Amino acid sequence: MNFEYFCNTRIKMGAGASNALAPIMADMINPDATVMIVSDPGVRKIGLVDPIEAHLTGSGYKVVHFNEVSPNPRDHECLAGAEVFRQEGTTALVAIGGGSPMDVAKAIALLGPNGGSFEDYIEGRVTYANVAPLICIPTTAGTGSEVTRSAVITLAETHTKITLKHELLRPDVAILDPELTVSVPGSITAATGVDALVHAIEGYTCKLTNPVSKAMGAAAMKEIVEYLPKAYRNGADFEARSKMQEGSLLAGLCFGSADVAAVHCLAEALGSLYDTPHGIANAIFLPYVVQYNAEEDRALHAELSRIMNFADELDSETVAIDKMVRGLYAFTEQLDIPTLGELSYVKASDLEHMAEIAERNGSTPSNVRPIAKVDYLNILEQAFL
Ligand SMILES: [Fe+2]
């Protein structure tokens, strides 16, 4: 098959890896330059930003902060960050947090030096030249944004999510320090962890997959299925935290050069209407979409079931698929993921609109089984019961 796989992100992983930030930064920019730390109020509050700021200022860098970042980050937040970037004469960015600060940092790295509006980039009126250097330090194990070329941003006026996607948006460096994830609460561990599992499953099965993505996705699925329940039950389990960061990284390397698919299309529709956290939205739809997709390619889905250890070589295709579907419902249930019907703010009258938004998502054509509004609506109605 013809494919291209590309990832130019330097990856440094290990306990205490965040202490390597200043030496790595020294390879990239002048020692007295201004660095913008992009985080969010929650990450700052639990004390993950202060030590990294002290580490940078102790090495001579001037630090400015930007933490006006929502869970589903907005276009105006990115534009405000870009303004601060320019006013402060910023040279490089460090993102600390989950997917939202990392995606906002990517947008600021683009909009800060280049200017322009989101429309300019979507419609191709401005080039992606001069993207500022960016180092990502994820504090959750899920998004994989530290190694991907995309940033998902919500346009506040229309409640629509857009994805900026370009090779130059891929972070220059990803520093993965599992110690930073130990304080993440159980509910966020669960939601972000299932997001990573969905990245691996969708990257592995989607129409844009390739052999390298599949290798990364298979390794990610094995680790996440084994270690996410352990990390959820005991946040202090360092081995589980470490394996989850690895799994999330591998899942990012899987879908980052392939695509996501119908689970994300539904999750982004739910998130854009109600601000449902991305991981929870993905977890809600995962078993339903896998069940739907299995009808298209039974051999592929039996293979998926064996990779995740829901089935073994002796199980027939039918048994393997059945075990995986039941296994995924049980998997999200043990992580205390709510059902769609349990989200009290979701209105039955909005399901059709959600199905329309999902159908328009740019990743709908990537789904392994053709899927249209009527199919999305069917899944939403089943999930809402
Ligand atoms: Fe995701």
Automatic annotation (TrEMBL):
<feature type="domain" description="Alcohol dehydrogenase iron-type/glycerol dehydrogenase GldA">
    <location>
        <begin position="9"/>
        <end position="178"/>
    </location>
</feature>
<dbReference type="InterPro" id="IPR039697">
    <property type="entry name" value="Alcohol_dehydrogenase_Fe"/>
</dbReference>
<dbReference type="InterPro" id="IPR018211">
    <property type="entry name" value="ADH_Fe_CS"/>
</dbReference>
<protein>
    <submittedName>
        <fullName>Iron-containing alcohol dehydrogenase</fullName>
    </submittedName>
</protein>
<dbReference type="GO" id="GO:0004022">
    <property type="term" value="F:alcohol dehydrogenase (NAD+) activity"/>
</dbReference>
<keyword id="KW-0560">Oxidoreductase</keyword>
<dbReference type="InterPro" id="IPR001670">
    <property type="entry name" value="ADH_Fe/GldA"/>
</dbReference>
<comment type="similarity">
    <text>Belongs to the iron-containing alcohol dehydrogenase family.</text>
</comment>
<dbReference type="Pfam" id="PF25137">
    <property type="entry name" value="ADH_Fe_C"/>
</dbReference>
<dbReference type="InterPro" id="IPR056798">
    <property type="entry name" value="ADH_Fe_C"/>
</dbReference>
<dbReference type="Pfam" id="PF00465">
    <property type="entry name" value="Fe-ADH"/>
</dbReference>
<dbReference type="GO" id="GO:0046872">
    <property type="term" value="F:metal ion binding"/>
</dbReference>
<feature type="domain" description="Fe-containing alcohol dehydrogenase-like C-terminal">
    <location>
        <begin position="189"/>
        <end position="384"/>
    </location>
</feature>
<keyword id="KW-0520">NAD</keyword>
